[in-house]
């Protein structure tokens, strides 16, 4: 945690907020042994001082968060980073069209010959004081999510017919993510949306992307870090202008490709695996390939791109 | 050289990427000898646009009309290429390799087809230089090439001046604006070799012409004859007429009414309110009927519309193989999406809703699968409404829009999905909804070729009117596909207190976006097949969010629209 605190201090996040987080942590019951492994160790830090401050303030105030933004804005990374910062176990719930109350709260099952409730991720999160990440919440039907209304508002409880009422632990928070207007998604209804504070996630800035690349790959030559940053920006612009889909706009894919380069794979092939081949349409793939070729020399190897 | 559509789009993208902007049509797109988009040169074109843009426009414009314009243009690009390379080599590590690749290809072409044309000789010399070889040029040519080796740190005017200097010194080019007469004496006493006197008989170069050893496609002037008629003018002829005469004119022009007068009146009372106050509705039955009694303007308009209908069908038939393949592919995609969503879904499981009939198995057979789990899969009935924007702004695309509408309707029909197809436009305050086929009319898809464009488009009212008709749709799930250029525009203004706002641009876009949201809130899905230009992309985004797709060429139609429909079906 102290490493994460140091990172946030370096990023310029308000010290009073960071102190409040430490204070909050000391006041909460520590996560149980059985769920301690659920406290995440984020793979990537989230860059963005303002968003950090907004999110920390909201969670400290007992609110739930809805992170809204297009692909590659770091919604899940921020959620994971927040769970880690607050030191709470995390439950990931990926929403899809058939998500229903049973898959969220729990279903009946047999235990020792008796029918009992097998807790779903939301119920476990409520009991263990966890952070529940409701990923792509607007993929599910609104009517299926009505079951969460009492959980997310001031009642802070889960009431399952035929079973006891489950109160939410004081430490429990829910962080939902959604990509508004993305194909296959729908509008969140007002009842649900009003139970969250909404953060409009900005795309990662060029400066922050560069920071991320330098942090992830300390040996990467700055000229190439700059090129990979520009490559990602070029692809984003192409997506924004509706020339290609967002399949190639994949920051994780870009980082993985650089990692492959470090392992010795030539840049062209690494970027094919990490970025270009994400497009299944031949023509789209060609457009992305052109963007890559316009930025990264085809014969570039890890040896050229890394200092060590 | 016939350049394939996908290579044109690819070239355009290469220029845009380098220029770092997408809201313009590149004035030059380059291709190699085989007609493939040339990444290196298109990157150069994009960088020139980004770094020097407007400063060079005058220089290029001054070549127009000259017999040597192609030579000047290519020499200028030879100079610009060196400046771009000098500026970009440190910014883009890929550039040196791309340049060498270009040089190798061009030199191979030169050696295969030797030429003594100055531009070829100089380009070959430059290519040799790039590859580290001796340029093998005469003293004069070496001098010219050296003069065309320009530093990248010059600003636009300085760069233009240097280029002009080279052209003047070595090729007799005389700077000046093209409007001046060729007979005018220049300050140096030489006669102009271009412009003026020859303007009446200007050398018109083809759009696609030689460029180095490949080809360059130059954007053509889009304005002029045959361009769309002004959108926002009320025909005086119709304005002066009475309400009744106007309705009769519209009936002659668009076809017999679909609903009775009373029905339409009721709909108007319900729909023509708020921002659409003072508007009227007319529902026409689309077809090829011609009112023989229609004379004068109305008759002529109708006959022109019928002619367009023939053109639509002919254009579709001209590409029949490709279009049929698109229908087959689109049908397959929709069918797959439906199958994936139609599977029965009650499964036995160890958790879920207790199945009392099977409880004994837990005790007697130690079988814990005594619960049922319902995986909701049946997507229920689906019907689709296709709404075609038939305003004048679509005039250039009539054949394309009708073909796209037909292909979607035919594919859905083949999948057994009821489809209703309606076109909309507005004329003299009337929003006209032309119905080409209704849900149950499975044999009337070809009627969609009776699509023609005219007048303005009050998208918000058309969407609202369609939304009203969706209430009576026979299916549980409703999908609306709108083929539009996202450019609402109508003559009836919106009253805001004592002032009036034009129904155009942002006001029209926001109104349409609102009406689309109203439909989506009822549970129907709305997607758009965007048929407009780059400049209208933000409007499409405002109205449809990401639920729109853009078809730049019909080859990709099935896959692109298929994905969009597939996503919506999955979502039902």
Describe the structure.
The complex is a heterodimer of chains A (308) and B (572). By secondary structure, chain A is α/β, with parallel strands linked by helices. Chain A is 46% helix and 14% strand. Chain A folds into 2 domains: 2-200, P-loop containing nucleotide triphosphate hydrolases (Rossmann fold, 3-Layer(aba) Sandwich); 206-305. In chain A, the strands form 3 sheets. A 5-stranded parallel β-sheet of chain A has the order 2-5-8-1-9, with helices on both faces. A two-stranded antiparallel ribbon of chain A has the order 3-4. In chain A, strands 6-7 form a two-stranded antiparallel ribbon. In chain A, strand 3 and strand 4 form a beta hairpin. Chain B starts with a helix and ends with a helix. In chain B, strand 12 and strand 13 (499-504) form a beta hairpin. Chain B is an alpha/beta fold. Chain B is built from 19 helices and 15 strands. Chain B has 2 domains: 5-218, no CATH class; 276-330 and 380-570, von Willebrand factor, type A domain (Rossmann fold, 3-Layer(aba) Sandwich), CATH 3.40.50. In chain B, helix 1 packs across helix 2 and helix 17 packs parallel to helix 18 (537-544). The interface between A and B is large, with 43 and 55 residues. Strand 3 of chain A pairs antiparallel with strand 6 (351-354) of chain B, so a sheet runs across the interface.
């Amino acid at each position: 945690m102290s490493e994460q605190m140091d990172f946030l201090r370096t990023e310029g996040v308000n010290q009073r907020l960071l102190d409040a987080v430490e204070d909050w942590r000391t006041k909460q019951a520590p996560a149980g042994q059985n769920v301690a492994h659920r406290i995440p160790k984020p793979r990537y830090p989230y860059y963005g001082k303002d968003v950090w401050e907004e999110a920390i303030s909201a969670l400290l105030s007992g609110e739930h968060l809805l992170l809204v933004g297009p692909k590659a804005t770091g919604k899940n990374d921020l959620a994971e980073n927040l769970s880690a910062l607050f030191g709470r176990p995390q439950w990931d719930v990926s929403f899809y069209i058939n998500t229903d109350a049973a898959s969220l709260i729990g279903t009946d099952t047999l235990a020792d010959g008796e029918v009992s409730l097998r807790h779903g991720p939301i119920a476990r999160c409520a009991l263990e004081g966890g952070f529940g990440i409701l990923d792509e919440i607007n993929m599910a039907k609104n009517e299926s999510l009505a079951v969460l209304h009492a959980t997310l508002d001031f009642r802070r409880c889960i009431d399952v017919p035929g079973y006891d009422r489950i109160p939410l632990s004081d430490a429990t928070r829910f962080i939902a993510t959604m990509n508004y207007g993305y194909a296959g998604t729908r509008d969140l209804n007002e009842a649900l949306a009003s139970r969250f504070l909404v953060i409009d996630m900005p795309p990662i800035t060029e400066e922050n992307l560069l920071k991320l690349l330098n942090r992830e790959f300390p040996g990467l030559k700055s000229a190439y870090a700059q090129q990979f940053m520009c490559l990602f920006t070029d692809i984003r612009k192409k997506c924004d202008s509706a020339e290609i889909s967002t399949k190639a706009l994949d920051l994780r894919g870009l980082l993985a490709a650089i990692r492959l380069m470090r392992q010795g794979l030539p840049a062209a092939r690494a970027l094919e695996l990490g970025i270009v081949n994400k497009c299944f349409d031949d023509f789209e793939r060609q457009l992305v390939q052109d963007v890559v070729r316009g930025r990264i020399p085809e014969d570039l190897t890890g040896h050229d791109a890394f200092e060590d | 050289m016939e350049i394939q559509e996908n290579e044109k789009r690819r070239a355009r993208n290469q220029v845009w990427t380098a220029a770092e902007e997408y809201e313009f049509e590149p004035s030059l797109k380059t291709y190699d000898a085989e007609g493939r988009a040339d990444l290196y040169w298109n990157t150069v074109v994009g960088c020139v646009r980004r770094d020097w843009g407007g400063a060079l426009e005058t220089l290029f414009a001054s070549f127009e009309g000259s017999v040597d314009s192609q030579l000047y243009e290519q020499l200028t690009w030879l100079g610009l290429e060196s400046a771009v390379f000098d500026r970009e080599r440190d910014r883009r590590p890929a550039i040196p390799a791309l340049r060498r690749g270009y040089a190798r290809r061009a030199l191979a072409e030169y050696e295969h087809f030797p030429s003594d044309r100055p531009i070829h000789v100089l380009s070959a010399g430059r290519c040799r230089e790039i590859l580290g070889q001796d340029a093998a040029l005469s003293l004069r040519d070496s001098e010219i090439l050296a003069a065309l080796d320009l530093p990248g740190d010059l600003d636009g005017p300085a760069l233009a001046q240097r280029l002009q200097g080279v052209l003047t010194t070595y090729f007799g080019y005389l700077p000046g604006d093209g409007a001046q007469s060729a007979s005018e004496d220049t300050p140096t006493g030489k006669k102009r070799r271009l412009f003026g006197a020859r303007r009446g008989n200007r050398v018109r170069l083809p759009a696609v012409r030689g460029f180095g050893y490949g080809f360059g496609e130059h954007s053509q002037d889009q304005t002029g004859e045959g361009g769309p008629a002004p959108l926002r003018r009320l025909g005086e002829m119709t304005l002066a007429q009475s309400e009744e005469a106007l309705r009769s004119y519209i009936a002659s022009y668009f076809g017999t009414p679909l609903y009775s007068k009373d029905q339409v009146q009721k709909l108007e009372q319900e729909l023509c309110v708020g921002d659409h106050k003072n508007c009227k509705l007319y529902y026409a039955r689309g077809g090829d009927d011609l009112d023989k009694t229609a004379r004068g303007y109305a008759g002529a308009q109708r006959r022109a519309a019928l002619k367009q209908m023939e053109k639509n069908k002919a254009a579709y038939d001209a590409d029949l193989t490709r279009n049929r393949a698109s229908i087959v592919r689109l049908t397959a995609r929709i069918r797959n999406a439906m199958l994936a969503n139609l599977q029965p879904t009650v499964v036995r499981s160890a958790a879920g809703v207790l199945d009392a009939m099977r409880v004994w198995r837990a005790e007697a057979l130690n079988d814990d699968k005594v619960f049922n789990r319902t995986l909701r899969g049946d997507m229920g009935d689906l019907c689709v409404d296709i709404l075609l924007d038939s305003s004048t702004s679509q005039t250039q695309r009539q054949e394309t829009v009708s073909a796209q509408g037909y292909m979607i309707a035919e594919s859905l029909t083949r999948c057994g999905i009821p489809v209703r197809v309606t076109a909309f436009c507005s004329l003299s305050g009337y929003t006209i909804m032309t119905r080409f086929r209704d849900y149950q009319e499975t044999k009337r898809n070809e009627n969609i070729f009776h699509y023609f464009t005219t007048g303005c488009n009050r998208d918000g009212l058309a969407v609202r009117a369609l939304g009203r008709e969706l209430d009576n749709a026979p299916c549980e799930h409703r999908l609306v596909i709108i083929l539009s250029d996202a450019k609402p525009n109508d003559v009836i203004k919106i009253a805001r207190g004592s002032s009036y706002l034009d129904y155009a641009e942002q006001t029209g876009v926001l109104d349409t976006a609102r009406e689309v949201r109203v439909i989506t809130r009822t549970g129907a899905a709305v997607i758009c097949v965007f048929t407009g230009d780059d400049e209208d992309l933000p409007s499409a985004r405002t109205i449809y969010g990401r639920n729109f797709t853009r078809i730049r060429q019909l080859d990709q139609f099935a896959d692109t629209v298929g994905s969009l429909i597939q996503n919506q079906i999955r979502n039902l």
